[in-house]
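Hi R.,

Here's the chain you asked about this morning:
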Amino acid sequence: MKKILLAIICLLSAYSFSQVTNEGVPNSWGLNLDNSQIQKKELPTFDLEAVKAEDAVNDYKFDAPWRFGYMHSVDYGFDDGIWTTLENGDRIWRILITSPKALSLNFIFDDFYMPEGGYLYLYNNEKTDLLGAYDSNQNQESGVLGTWLVEGDAVWLEYFEPSEVKDQGRLHIAKATHGYRNAETFKEAKGLNDSGDCNLDVDCSIGEDWEELKEHNKRSAGILLSGGGGFCSGALINNTENDGTPYFLTANHCFSDPSVWAFRFGWISPNAVCATTANSSNGPTNMTLSGATLRSRDAGSDFALVEINQPVPEDWDRVFAGWDRSGNTPDFTVGIHHPSGDVMKVCRDDDQPTQTINGGAQTWEITTAGGGWEMGVTEPGSSGSPLFDTEGRIIGQLYGGGAACSGTVDNNQFDYYGRLDISWEGGGSSSTRLRDWLDPNGTGAND
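And the predicted structure, written out as tokens:
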């Protein structure tokens, strides 16, 4: 049988133009534009304490993405911003959106269309955080698009339109999310015994027997912004054609309209913090893509497979992880994930997982009989993250569990992952199983 290799992404060089974030700078940054006519749009207030009370109940249910922000319905378009016409006839449109005390802001467009040569940037007031350029490569048939987060409580959206495509661009903001917490504020709100200090940054050692595989597979893992207000985890996953199709595997309970999803890869702390009370540093944030299409999902093993709507740029040096659908029980397992919307972490269980039913789904269980995780742990936001076997192949994705930190060590509780061998046939149709997408020509490969 044809073996799925843990292959490095090999994409056609023509795809390299599709990178969407942190390239270049907005045109206005090199111009002395008059900002006196800019009328900022301030988001409404909301009952933050009530939202936090909901989070206190929902955080460890593992039945939805980990909520970091409160989403507002808004109605902002070109009529709400300011146009500036340049000497050559090109135009710049800008709008400033604020939400006092927000840690971040992100947006969903329900009408997004960039003509050739037109592009959009988002940046904060201090110009310390930048997203863009979003250009015609991000146009979707549905006309919707979700952005990643911009740090701060005041964010500019800036659209550049060449004179030759005047009035062809479309932008309408339907949702704006006030980010009220991140991994650090989540930890601060918890007690010592539930602070997440037992997590290991992905660059921490988990054993020489898996070090090379970890270095490889961390390049497949990503964090997912689902529905504009919540985080999950997941990974790029290979198919038998090794053709670079940007499939991303996550959990079914993370599902929302994937056309507004956003993905970040390679978010790794440059200083590895390994189960201590020290804080990790922020890592690279320049690998972000927006928009995906559902391929299949099923609650029977809590999986969802989407195809990202743009190729993954070759110069990002990402990989598509391999998989094993045999159902054979590995000697040990490893997870790579983004708990509570944090930088990438790793966990390892030195015992064999068991095949059990949890919440009605067929799962691999990290059992309490073996003391739970030996290294690291998972948290809300880790949902959908890959479970790897001893050979570095995906055998499932995180569904739920009771594992958490007790100071700088694990609380010895179980976690469970939907089984990829069950997901292979799923609900028996192309929209409810992995087989049609990961083995499109029916080779019958097990791994």
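The radius of gyration is 22 Å.

Let me know if you need anything else.
M.
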